[in-house]
Design goal:
alpha+beta; 3 domains; binds magnesium ion; Dna Ligase, domain 1; 495 residues; single chain; D-amino Acid Aminotransferase, Chain A, domain 1; binds adenosine-5'-diphosphate; Rossmann fold
Length: 495
């Protein structure tokens, strides 16, 4: 296959911008697609061409295969990068592209179908002796069956939707008498959220860590891993802070979990970049396969930082039919990387979305600091999409230095007009349990209450209010004055 000269990015926000950056470096022209809500978005400005695809609701724009395909044809893009979310793990889309002769920068529809269904995935990896969470690898048919299996596994038990994703479709059951109702609810939630009511059981490992392995595979029989990421700090079963490498694995464990991950990729004839997720039990250092995400992951930059590999470049090369340019032995871990996700959410209000205008927006700069974002000062954050606006990634020689550098960089990340997860991230990264690596996915539940933010100084909310008041005052009195600048209140008050 000849190299691509034009790629359409079927996504928005930071990930669309991030993919375009590599395309540019490779001399490949880019096509953006955008909804009504994204007319002035950063990814639209960044692209060489942009195609309008309809109303704000993603079901009428970013998720409409016909519109995306028409945009690719109209602009002559030979390939589509789907980013994450939206159509990225949609096997039907992958199939459609094949029929249309457009290359999807991602795995085959067959790989997506196997791994998109958690039960199918467990069945597929069995042949490779991958450790699985005690539980069922089939859908629960009746309450009686669930109960007898549940007693065997032992409580607490997690009921999971086979088609679940994005932290949705999970329910913990602590005692037998809660089981019947929980099962019924889980099934009906799965039906309405994913159009499939298949649920299965897993032992719930309450105090656990999330460890995942980045894999990279080509179409010439090469299956590699680029080490692990730890993504244990979560809210609503969704990651907020990630790091690479994990602070708990020994080199021998790292090699072993990496080999398992590569086998999971083999089990579905994987091609391109993917992530194999495991749950790790610090009590006995055991770990179990959870699922494979058949796309580029939000937190891929921490892997790029420690490995020196541009994952998007490799995705593109693999999709062009090239062989991976390195072997497992060529890959080495260099230093430590930490990523904090900047969500337009208020940590003090249960991490609920806090949408609005970015009255002030300035990113930290410096060696080893990378900000992947999709917004600029003055932009409105649309209510229609995922509220993640940016990721800040820091690379340093070791974990302690990465922690200090991240704390400092957070202080220099100025956002006014909305609340974000940054202040929560500062609290978490500065916490003893994070520093001493004892933290588990229960971190938020165990240690976080909104009052811990108060000791950090004024809330960004106060600051936003102050900024907007100042802004409108100055606009009213001095129409030519620039947007307000200055350090955020909580930054000034840092002690
Ligand atoms: P990652 O898995 O890349 O670490 P997330 O779990 O936050 O990060 O998911 C990445 C994106 O994909 C998010 O925008 C998330 O909302 C979305 N996503 C993934 N799977 C689903 C799903 N089944 N339903 C809804 N959203 C999903
Ligand atoms: P999703 O498709 O929504 O990402 P995952 O199976 O990857 O679903 O699980 C998401 C998160 O839920 C994990 O990172 C972990 O924090 C928690 N989780 C999943 N399975 C278990 C389990 N068996 N025990 C404890 N926590 C779990
Ligand atoms: Mg997952």
């Amino acid at each position: 296959m000849s190299p691509f000269s034009k790629i359409l990015i079927a996504n928005r926000g930071e990930i669309a911008c991030r993919v375009m950056r590599t395309c540019r470096e490779m001399g490949i022209a880019t096509v953006a697609v955008f909804s009504e809500a994204d007319r002035n978005a950063k990814h639209v400005k960044m692209a060489d061409e942009a195609v309008f695809i309809g109303p704000p609701a993603s079901a009428q724009s970013y998720l409409v295969m016909d519109k995306i395909i028409a945009a690719a044809k109209e602009t002559g893009a030979q390939a589509i990068h789907p980013g994450y979310g939206f159509l990225s793990e949609n096997a039907q889309f992958a199939r459609r592209l094949k029929e249309e002769g457009i290359t999807l920068i991602g795995p085959s529809p067959e790989s997506m179908e196997i791994m998109g269904d958690k039960i199918k995935a467990k069945k597929a990896v069995k042949a490779f002796d991958i450790p699985l969470v005690p539980g069922t690898d089939y859908a629960i048919a009746s309450y009686e069956e669930a109960l007898s299996k549940g007693r065997e596994i032992g409580f607490p038990i997690l009921i999971k939707a086979s088609a679940g994703g994005g932290g949705k479709g999970m329910r913990v059951v602590w005692k037998e008498d809660e089981f019947a109702e929980a099962l019924q609810r889980a099934q009906s939630e799965a039906r309405s959220a994913f159009g499939d009511d298949s649920v299965f059981l897993e032992k719930y490992i309450a105090e656990s860590k999330h460890i995942e392995v980045q894999v990279l595979c080509d179409n010439h029989g090469n299956y590699l891993h680029l080490f692990e990421r730890e993504c244990t700090i979560q809210r609503r079963h969704q990651k907020v802070i990630e790091e690479a490498p994990s602070s708990v694995l020994t080199p021998a464990e790292r090699a072993e979990i990496g080999a398992h991950a590569v086998n999971v990729a083999r089990a579905c004839d994987y091609s391109g970049a993917g992530t194999v997720e495991f749950i790790y039990d610090p009590a006995d250092r055991s770990y179990y396969f959870l699922e494979m995400n058949t796309r580029l992951q939000v937190e891929h930059p921490v892997t790029e930082m420690i490995s020196g590999v541009d994952l998007v470049r490799q995705q593109i090369l693999v999709a062009q039919g090239e062989a991976l340019p390195f072997t497992q032995d060529d890959l080495k871990i260099n230093g430590h990387a930490l990523e904090v996700r900047v969500y337009a959410e208020d940590p003090a209000n249960n991490f609920l979305p806090d949408i609005g205008r970015l009255i002030e927006y300035r990113i930290p700069e410096g060696e080893g600091i990378r900000v992947d974002d999709g917004f600029e000062r003055g932009m409105d954050i649309p209510v229609y999409y995922d509220p993640m606006i940016a990721k800040m990634v820091v690379h340093a020689a070791d974990r302690d230095q990465a922690i200090e550098k991240t704390l400092d960089a957070i202080d220099n990340y100025i956002i006014g007009g909305i609340e974000t997860t940054l202040r929560f991230c500062k609290f978490a990264i500065d916490h003893e349990a994070f520093r001493d690596t004892s933290f588990t996915t229960k971190f938020v539940e165990k240690y976080f209450t909104p009052d811990v933010l108060r000791t950090q100084g004024n809330t960004a909310m106060d600051e936003a209010a102050a900024l907007s008041a100042g802004y409108f005052f100055r606009r009213a009195t001095q129409p030519e004055s620039p947007l307000p600048v200055g350090k955020s209140a909580w930054q000034i008050k840092r002690t």
